[in-house]
Amino acid sequence: MKITLATLKYSFLFSLILILMSCGTTQKKSDSSTPSLVGTFWILQTLEGKTISHPDDPRLIGFELQESKNRIVGFGGCNNFFGTYNLSQPDKISFSPIGATKMACLTTTFNENDFFAVFEGVNNYQIRDQILTLYQDNEVLATLKADKTIGK
C-alpha cells in the first residue's frame, strides 16, 4: 500500500477533528448545581425563623453528614457535636440523640442547645439553591447554606 501526501493530509485532518470534538464533551459542574446532602458542610443561617449571628467565635456553626457509618459531625457555637442519621427515603431524614463536648463558653451569645433540639424534631428536608431546609412535617426548623470551601 502506497501512502500518498493526500492520504497523510486526510488522516491528519481527521485526527485533528476528533481531538477538537473531544475537547468540548467534558461538562463542568456549575456553581448553581445542587450540593449533595452527604459530604457537604452546611452552615446554619436561620433557626426557628431567626437569622443566626455568631460574632463570638470565628468557627462556622453547622454540620456535615458523613457517609461512613451515617455520622453527623459539626460545631454548635461552643461545642463540637456528633451523632448518626438515617435517610429512609429521598427527602426523609432522622437523627439519633446528639452528643457534644462540654466546653464552658462564657462569652457566647448563641444557645447551641436550640440548634441541637432541631435534630430531635426534623423528619424531612429540601435542598434548593444551595440552601438546606430542615422541616418537622411542614414547619421550617432551620435553614443552612452549603459551604463550598470546607472539605474541598
The CATH topology turns out to be Lipocalin
Task: Tell me the β content.
Answer: 35-45%
The major pleated sheet works out as: 10 strands, antiparallel
Helix content: 10-25%
Described by the principal axes of the CA atoms, the overall outline is elongated
**Number of helical runs?**
2
Query: Which structural class is indicated by helix and strand composition?
Result: alpha+beta
Distance between the termini: 55 Å
Element-by-element helix/strand order: HEEEEEEEHEEE
Radius of gyration: 24 Å
- What count of structural domains? 1
Instruction: Write down the overall mean pLDDT.
Output: 83
In CATH, the architecture is Beta Barrel
CATH class: Mainly Beta
Low-confidence stretches: 18-22, 24-31
The overall strand count is 10
Produce the secondary structure layout.
Layout: H1 5-23, E1 41-47, E2 50-51, E3 62-66, E4 71-75, E5 80-89, E6 92-95, E7 99-100, H2 112-121, E8 124-128, E9 131-136, E10 139-147
Antiparallel strand pairs: 1-2, 1-3, 1-10, 3-4, 4-5, 5-6, 5-7, 8-9, 9-10
